Amino acid sequence: MVDARRLRIAFFGTPDFAVPTLRALLATMHPIVAAVSQPDRARGRGQQTKPTPVKTVAADADIPVLQPERLTDPPFGDTLAALRPDLGVVAAYGKILPEWLIAIPPLGLINVHASLLPKYRGAAPIQRAVMAGETETGVTIMRIVKELDAGPTFARVVRPIPEDATSADVGRDLAQAGASLLVAVVEALAAGTALEEPQDERLATFAPKITREESLVRWERPAREIHDQVRGLAPWPHAWTRVEGSRVLVIRTAVEDEGGGAAAGEVLEASGDVLRVAAGRGCLRLTQLQPEGRRVMSAREFLAGRPLTPGARLS
């Protein structure tokens, strides 16, 4: 049996997705010499500046936290090198890491990537998989190289995507799965038994950053595609439509087959708990909505404040 050595780890992460991996590493014998997180930003309706989720967990564990505005700032590189990390672990840090940084730890940097590489390389693998109607996804632990998400892989785990799951739902599941998988790879690296496999470039697809311009619901599309758009864009920026000229976020939907013969965007039924709208093929039942500047509400609550009649059009 190979004896594992203790690895000094520099952790890179920012949002909630990274927290399970950080907590899992804290439970190992490997010391975390620093947590690198993006600078604190103003968040929420009140736009109050709050620490990143990773910073909060790291500070509670008395881990030094580094938050460079730019990775090129000389003090950051010098500080990180002085900590003498053996390995860097990245989980949704949010910035592309330069070659000089990748070269600091002797064992390099490894990443918890939320897709089954080489599919969905890039900034938004979870959202893109959900929006594409994929039925499964997963987590891949990969070595970071200069080219985006193209490094050799150590391990992967597959997870189903339930047909009504949002990106937030999938992200929570993958965060937990990725944490366990990452620890197993770290232990293998420490023991000198880790194996790496190159990616098949012929199978590579890309998952570019989500933009607000993708949020408008195009009712001429099939109901299934709109449903995937709605759940893929949750929790941000959310899909939206115009209701009598006003912008309304579409939070939750269900696909129904009825609606043949109606115009795309036409309200088929609007009473009680039911708000059904025709799509290019089939129809959608809108179950949760959020008028601009208001809270999320059920279809019943929405219709109580804004009655609609069959034949009205959403656009």
Would you give the CATH topology of the largest domain?
Rossmann fold
Q: State the separation between the terminal residues, measured CA to CA.
A: 65 Å
DSSP strand tally: 15
Helix fraction? Answer: 10-25%
Number of helices: 8
Report the portion of residues in β strands.
Answer: 25-35%
Q: Give the C-level CATH assignment of the largest domain.
A: Alpha Beta
- State the strand order across the main sheet: 5-2-1-6-7-8-9
Low-confidence stretches: none
Indicate the CATH architecture of the largest domain: 3-Layer(aba) Sandwich
Sheet bearing the most strands, described? 7 strands, mixed
In short:
The N and C termini lie far apart (65 Å). This protein has helices spanning 19-26, 53-60, 74-82, 99-102, 125-131, 167-191, 223-232, 299-305; strands at 9-13, 32-36, 41-43, 48-50, 65-66, 87-91, 109-113, 136-143, 153-160, 239-243, 246-256, 267-271, 274-278, 283-291, 297-298. It has 315 residues and is of the alpha/beta class.
Structure description:
With 315 residues, the chain is α/β, with parallel strands linked by helices. The chain has helices at residues 19-26, 53-60, 74-82, 99-102, 125-131, 167-191, 223-232, 299-305; strands at residues 9-13, 32-36, 41-43, 48-50, 65-66, 87-91, 109-113, 136-143, 153-160, 239-243, 246-256, 267-271, 274-278, 283-291, 297-298. Helix 1 (19-26) packs parallel to helix 6.
